[in-house]
Design goal:
Layout: H1 2-12, H2 21-33, H3 40-46, H4 52-66, H5 74-84
Length: 85
Amino acid sequence: MGRAASGAASALLPLLEDEDSTVRFKTAWALGQIDEPLAVGDLIEALNDKSSQVKSAAHKSLKKLTGEDFGRSYDKWKEWHDRNQ
């Protein structure tokens, strides 16, 4: 699944900054469905989204991709990511 996931992630990542919160929400959810570690940094950034639905989807996707759970805390996820890159 490696190359296909990378292509899917590359196509999805820009949508995390779409104007429509529904698009951002669905994108954050979808990124959790593909096994693509490159999405982790962008999902951490999505924890700062103004939409609680986007934050929730980003959090769930981060848990699924990493096996970690720091809640919706951007700072804790960022610190973990910086240590583990």
